Amino acid sequence: xxxxxxxxxxxxxxxxxxxxxxxxxxxxxxxxxxxxxxxxxxxxxxxxxxxxxxxxxxxxxxxxxxxxxxxxxxxxxxxxxxxxxxxxxxxxxxxxxxxxxxxxxxxxxxxxxxxxxxxxxxxxxxxxxxxxxxxxxxxxxxxxxxxxxxxxxxxxxxxxxxxxxxxxxxxxxxxxxxxxxxxxxxxxxxxxxxxxxxxxxxxxxxxxxxxxxxxxxxxxxxxxxxxxxxxxxxxxxxxxxxxxxxxxxxxxxxxxxxxxxxxxxxxxxxxxxxxxxxxxxxxxxxxxxxxxxxxxxxxxxxxxxxxxxxxxxxxxxxxxxxxxxxxxxxxxxxxxxxxxxxxxxxxxxxxxxxxxxxxxxxxxxxxxxxxxxxxxxxxxxxxxxxxxxxxxxxxxxxxxxxxxxxxxxxxxxxxxxxxxxxxxxxxxxxxxx
Length: 433
What we know:
Blueprint: H1 2-21, E1 25-31, H2 36-47, E2 60-65, H3 89-92, H4 103-111, H5 117-126, E3 137-138, E4 143-144, H6 148-155, E5 159-167, H7 171-177, H8 186-197, E6 201-205, H9 210-217, E7 220-224, H10 231-234, E8 240-244, E9 252-253, E10 262-263, H11 271-284, E11 289-295, H12 297-303, H13 307-329, E12 340-346, E13 349-350, E14 353-355, E15 367-371, E16 376-380, E17 383-385, E18 390-391, E19 395-401, E20 416-418, H14 420-430
Parallel strand pairs: 1-11, 1-12, 2-20, 5-6, 5-11, 6-8, 7-8
Antiparallel strand pairs: 2-19, 3-4, 9-10, 12-19, 13-18, 14-17, 15-16
Helix pairs in contact: 2-13, 5-7, 5-14, 11-13, 12-13
């Protein structure tokens, strides 16, 4: 009998240790469209040199391929493919610009087909490559693909939360929380998120008015930010919460700044505070959580070739990650880097930003206006964008905290991972014991 009790105790302690070894709080911060040159641009503006952003201090720092099946040269087979046919390191290099630059690489980026946000999100959430335009959907078999959120929900060990700068049914956010043949089926995607996936907390914009009613009918308490901080919200911790993000605009850089480097309007919502407030509310629910944070404005700015707007969006990203880092580092409500992990990754590169000259701290590009017979052409001697679209370029991936060493399993000899490895790491954390 005593031996039997000891065996039961051993089994109990064994499984207890497995669970205790898992991170309780997982933050995946995705920035749509962020190139490494965007990172260097913000770092130069704030500090006068590169690699000074918060994630540049993280122990895990690697580059990541983002190609989709559309990018693949030849016939793609899930069980038999060569990743070099998706991203050719011989032509494009093993490091992104500005660490590596050649005319051959520049031509490759201009000529090769890139991923879109739907295929990039699907790769990160399912571990599978798909064609552009679909969220977690195999257009060949006409079937949905199970994603990491589906698997987390099945196990019921973690709450899931979404915080996005955009509509909650768009960009990378939708690729973790829905399954659809077309990324443009906004209403169906929104309805699936609210009625089937049902994250514990959703914070994002919403341009489909009837979704407010859909949220309420599916048990969500619907409110506008910043009402998330009002006392009655903390009395509703047993309810799911849908927060409509309003008055969010990226800040604007101040040239030759002294104290404040970026300016917000008085009515502007700071996204870093939104994420911080959501984290505090999640912690009050007394359950481990997975928070997906999606920042989309870097992609928009790059596709508009708007350097100042890009800096503002990058600044919001850096401030958001600093907020998360500080909460964990201060041991807020039991969080620590022994039980929490931050993963920062770009979904894809956009805009092909290139530097013609070094911009010192606090300096912004100065366009020269050239007069043509019919038009005014703005040319900049300091920087230039070479496209208004996504490109098949390596992007950055960074991590710190509990189980961040899992990335070492997937980083190859060239210091590169694939975007499907984001799923692999998340699966190791949430699913694989």
